[in-house]
Amino acid sequence: MSQASIQPQTPDPISVRITTDDGYQLAGSEYRPATAESNGKAGIAAAPGHGIGVVINGATGVLRQYYDGFARFLCHQGFTVLTYDFRGIGGSLQHAPGAPVPTMLHWGQRDMDAALSFFMERHPQLLVKGIGHSIGGQLLGVLPDNNRYHGFLNIASQHIYWKNWPLRDRALTAAFFFGVLPLFYKSVGGLPKWVLGAEYLPKQVARDWSRFGRNKAYIADEQGQPLRQGFSGYRGRMRFYAMADDRRFAPPACVRELEKLFSNADTEVRVLHPRDFDMKAIDHFGFFKKSMHQRAWQESADWLAQPA
């Protein structure tokens, strides 16, 4: 049975604006579970997600609306949920004069920080956990004070050094990081929408993506020094989902390499096979689609609801 056919009704999200320390206005959507008064039912406090907040940090060039179905599902389980667009993407184009041009490092160091701080200030009573899709999970390692998250669920988040790909796919991956990305950010100043079917990527975002994938240092500063303190410093519970059929963006081998960087966290990796959910494919983006089997979503909600 598909998720779409059983999607519960939940209140529409509230539009919010998140101000970063360096002058960007990030567009966000906040999902609040129905109260006993609004739906005429008792027992809201007994919902598995009651008292827990979840911030969803999206993938490269993916708008927050993409996560709407999953956010509504969590909201129906009692979670309060925040989604948002990284700077330079979707609704997060507004910025103050003199604000720095967007980079991928800014997404983790500044935008993820601003979104988490905003959410915690609005809901000080909630225990906050995080979800990262692809780059949204990788950048947890550069988020300041990342132990504010009392648990983190990574969906298709991977170590993108090109040699981590299986040999059969390594040449194509190298061509993307060494050829495609530099060609576009040098010639047209960014990565157009049509290349990957996602949002336009600003020049420095595409440049960071390219240099992270080309070099063994992976996520590094402008001088090439690896940024590892936040990875080893995170001590929360972590679950990594790798999709068995994700060959292009996050094959299981790359997911396992990212897990190794979180050396002091309580981690586990689960490989999801489409056949286990009676599906033909999941791939890199399928987990958050409404066609994803409800069991996978429910397992994720149950994991997020567990004590920190």
Quick description:
Keywords: Aminopeptidase, Hydrolase, Protease. This is Serine aminopeptidase domain-containing protein. This protein has a single domain, classed as Alpha/Beta hydrolase fold, catalytic domain (Rossmann fold, 3-Layer(aba) Sandwich).
Notes on the protein architecture:
GO terms for molecular function: aminopeptidase activity. This is Serine aminopeptidase domain-containing protein. InterPro entries: AB_hydrolase_fold, Hydrolase_4, UCP037442_abhydr. It holds the Pfam family Hydrolase_4. Residues 54-139 form the Serine aminopeptidase S33 domain. With 308 residues, the protein is an alpha/beta fold. It has a single domain (4-305), classed as Alpha/Beta hydrolase fold, catalytic domain (Rossmann fold, 3-Layer(aba) Sandwich). The chain has ten helices and ten strands. The chain has helices at residues 36-39, 68-76, 104-122, 135-138, 167-187, 193-196, 203-214, 229-233, 252-261, 294-305; strands at 14-19, 25-31, 52-57, 80-84, 127-133, 152-155, 190-191, 201-202, 237-243, 266-272. Strands 1-2-4-3-5-6-9-10 form an eight-stranded mixed sheet, with helices on both faces. Strands 7-8 form a two-stranded antiparallel ribbon. Strand 9 (237-243), helix 9 (252-261) and strand 10 form a beta-alpha-beta unit. It is globular, with a radius of gyration of 19 Å. The model is unreliable at 36-40 (pLDDT under 50).
